[in-house]
């Protein structure tokens, strides 16, 4: 949307980079007797108070302490997130183990039922085989007895009597044939019984073989079940450890938050102090994002976020702040390169949001619309100007740049910005971003903080 000349930007990069450097305070060991300094610095303190400098130092000491605790809170939260992720992973594994246990248990029960049925079948087969064997034995005994009777010399042969009792030759032949058929029938019956026994024995052997296979499968499944249950128990134990860690970390966070609240309540108040914006950032201006931070749509570097819309739309302070500098008087259109650092009509402010200090630039305002002046304290949501297209701008939009000053006080940031260094000499490229720089002061993505 807009492109500021590099040398103008670098000049402006000077007014807002020193502000996050530490201010000079008295060398006092506040930690040695916090209760004393809390009492000494109670009430509203003015610059004329003899303990003003000591109390300013005590305030900075408390802010640093609060910042360290908040950083610890962030670290604890990261650890809690990691622990929760592990708990979720372990819970998913336990669910898988339970599913596998249920499956194995069902399969084992099925195998047990099969084994039970096979045992019943084997019992039936054994009874049947025994009956068949008894039938054969009875038949054998009958045939043997009959054969012995036939061979006994002093006894009448019943077969001979039967044959000789024929009335004629034809009748005799018929009787011989009957005896032959009876012997043959006995032999066939014996053969059939022996075949039945052989078939039953083979069936029994097959059932026993299948039973052995199923029993082997059951043994293997019993082993798998024991293994899975061991893994499940170990995983549940590990999950319990993580849950214990989570509880301890949460307890630490609760204690730390209590300390943070106590510190916040004990920070000395000074005349002209700017209230912290504890509810976070609020919207600067209505419209839509026409260009994001770090790059224009064309690809060239862009230090902030552009919100496009209508000329004259109101622009608001996104947090309680102190106005550092302003510029007005440039034409809404056709003032290319004019105004504060080429930004046309501009407002720069500093303030604290949730205990952290930020610097903000709002550029390209409408001519005559700037409603604030340097050193003025503004409230979050207070109107500071209107949208325009002044300076390096190709259409109506509000350029927003946001800087992280860490745990620096508002006064320190204000004084350093007023000293003539544009935004703390943060490089006007990606290396000046908090993502790349890794320490404050650094440039942030406004779209990650300011609603639009």
Helical percent range?
40-55%
The assigned structural class equals alpha+beta
> Separation of termini?
17 Å
CATH fold call of the largest domain: Glucose Permease (Domain IIA)
Q: What is the CATH architecture descriptor of the largest domain?
A: Distorted Sandwich
Low-confidence stretches: 1-25
DSSP E strands, number: 12
Strand content: 5-15%
Strand count, sense and barrel status of the largest sheet are: 8 strands, antiparallel
Q: Averaging pLDDT over every residue, what do you get?
A: 81
Question: Radius of gyration over alpha carbons?
Answer: 50 Å
- Kindly report the name of the CATH homologous superfamily of the largest domain: Glucose Permease (Domain IIA)
Identify the overall geometry. Answer: elongated
Task: Work out the count of structural domains.
Answer: 2
What are the secondary-structure elements, in order, as H or E?
HHEHHHEEEEEEEEEEHHE
Highest-level CATH class of the largest domain: Mainly Beta
Number of helices: 7
Question: What's the short version?
Answer:
With 452 residues, this protein is of the alpha+beta class. The chain has helices at 6-12, 34-40, 52-151, 158-164, 169-266, 410-418, 434-437; strands at 44-45, 269-270, 288-291, 305-308, 314-316, 321-327, 345-353, 356-365, 377-378, 383-386, 397-404, 442-444.
Give your account of this protein's structure.
This protein folds into 2 domains: 195 residues, Glucose Permease (Domain IIA) (Distorted Sandwich), CATH 2.70.70; 164 residues, Orthogonal Bundle (Helix Hairpins), CATH 1.10.287. 51% of the residues lie in helices and 13% in strands. The chain contains 7 helices and 12 strands. A hairpin with a 2-residue loop joins strand 7 and strand 8. Helix 3 runs antiparallel to helix 5 and helix 4 crosses helix 5. The chain is elongated, with a radius of gyration of 50 Å. The N terminus is likely disordered.
């Amino acid at each position: 949307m807009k492109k500021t000349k590099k040398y103008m930007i670098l000049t402006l990069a000077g007014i807002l980079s020193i502000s996050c450097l530490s201010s000079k305070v008295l060398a006092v060991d506040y930690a040695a007797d916090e209760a004393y300094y809390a009492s000494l610095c109670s009430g509203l303190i003015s610059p004329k108070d003899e303990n003003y400098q000591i109390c300013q130092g005590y305030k900075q000491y408390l802010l640093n302490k609060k910042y360290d605790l908040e950083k610890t809170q962030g670290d604890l939260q990261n650890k809690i997130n990691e622990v929760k992720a592990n708990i979720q992973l372990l819970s998913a594994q336990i669910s898988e183990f339970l599913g596998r246990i249920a499956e194995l248990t069902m399969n084992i029960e099925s195998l047990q039922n099969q084994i039970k049925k096979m045992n019943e079948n084997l019992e039936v087969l054994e009874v049947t085989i025994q009956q068949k064997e008894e039938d054969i034995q009875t038949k054998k005994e009958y045939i043997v007895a009959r054969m012995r009777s036939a061979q006994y010399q002093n006894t009448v042969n019943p077969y001979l009597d039967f044959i000789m009792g024929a009335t004629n030759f034809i009748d005799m032949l018929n009787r011989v044939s009957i005896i032959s058929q009876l012997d043959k029938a006995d032999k066939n019956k014996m053969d059939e019984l022996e075949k039945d026994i052989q078939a039953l024995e083979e069936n029994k052997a097959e059932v026993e073989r299948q039973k052995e296979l199923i029993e082997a499968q059951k043994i293997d499944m019993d082993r798998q079940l024991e293994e899975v249950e061991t893994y499940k128990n170990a995983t549940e134990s590990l999950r319990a450890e993580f849950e214990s860690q989570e509880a301890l970390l949460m307890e630490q966070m609760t204690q730390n938050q209590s300390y943070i609240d106590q510190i916040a309540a004990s920070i000395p108040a000074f005349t002209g102090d700017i209230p912290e914006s504890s509810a976070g950032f609020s919207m600067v201006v209505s419209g839509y994002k026409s260009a994001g931070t770090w790059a224009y749509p064309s690809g060239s570097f862009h230090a902030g976020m552009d919100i496009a819309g209508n000329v004259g739309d109101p622009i608001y302070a996104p947090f309680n702040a102190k106005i550092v500098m302003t510029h007005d008087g440039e034409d809404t259109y056709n003032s290319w390169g004019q105004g504060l650092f080429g930004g046309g009509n501009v407002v720069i402010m500093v303030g604290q949001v949730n205990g952290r200090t930020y610097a903000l630039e709002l550029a390209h305002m409408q001519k005559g619309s700037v409603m604030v002046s340097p050193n003025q304290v503004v409230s979050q949501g207070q109107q500071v100007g209107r949208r325009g297209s002044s300076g390096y701008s190709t259409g109506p939009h509000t350029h927003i740049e946001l800087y992280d000053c860490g745990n620096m006080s508002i006064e320190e940031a204000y004084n350093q910005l007023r000293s003539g260094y544009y935004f703390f000499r943060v490089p006007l490229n990606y290396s000046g971003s908090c993502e790349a720089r890794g320490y404050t002061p650094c440039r942030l993505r406004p779209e990650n903080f300011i609603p639009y």
